[in-house]
């Protein structure tokens, strides 16, 4: 029978107090075979040796660096300087990746705030003619045989593929309809594609990329939903083009400006409708 000098051992409470952890943490470490007491006395007290004190010092310090318990357990089985440096370097790289991810989140938040603070004409339902430089959009064609659910799925894929996860909040996804469907009002709600404005950089080069040419664009800002106002919008644009001798050169593009992201009531939505035009 092994005899223990309890005067040279630490109780669980003493050891826990030394390192500012709870006795429950020590119980957990014992349960997962990371650090077990040297022996348990007849009265149930758990006792730890000097060597276990040293092991716990390593555990507590490595945990303070957010190193996983599994990595610590593996290190304690066969500790050496090279293994220690590798452990630290892996955690350093993990932290650097977290920093990069958080910096990207901060950048995205800055973009979202900038987009939300963008000014737009507060005169709604007023046609405006503006010259626009060339712009790049990413578009996804919508099949006319798709039902509502399939369209939602395609919309989501377009949004996530364009902006990647949380960055889909950076910009809204718009849609377009053909001039025939829009102005004849036969199928004014039948979208033919989803689109997103993107920066004209090589990283966005893809078969889904399309260029909106520089030129004269007719646009209207309006409140509410497109579906509720499409008939009035078609008449408004048609009258304006006839009066100013304009003809359309593109599809009709509808782009949300303020939507469900910041509004509960659809009557507070703000949308922009635009199309490329030229003088007759």
Bulk shape: rod-shaped
The count of strands amounts to 12
Q: Over all CA atoms, what is the radius of gyration? A: 32 Å
Poorly predicted tracts of residues: none
Q: Helix fraction?
A: 40-55%
Number of helices: 8
Amino- and carboxy-terminal Cα gap:
107 Å
Order of helices and strands: EHHEEHHHEEHEHEEEHEEE
Q: What proportion strand?
A: 15-25%
Would you kindly provide a written description of the structure presented here, covering whatever features stand out?
The protein has helices spanning 12-19, 23-31, 50-64, 69-77, 81-116, 148-163, 179-184, 226-243, and strands at 10-11, 39-40, 46-48, 128-132, 135-141, 174-177, 193-198, 209-212, 215-223, 246-248, 252-258, 270-279. By secondary structure, the protein is α+β, with helices and mostly antiparallel strands. The strands form two sheets. Strands 4, 5, 6, 7, 8, 9, 10, 11 and 12 form a nine-stranded antiparallel β-sheet that branches. A hairpin with a 5-residue loop joins strand 2 (39-40) and strand 3. It is rod-shaped, with a radius of gyration of 32 Å. It starts with 9 loop residues before the first strand and ends with a strand.
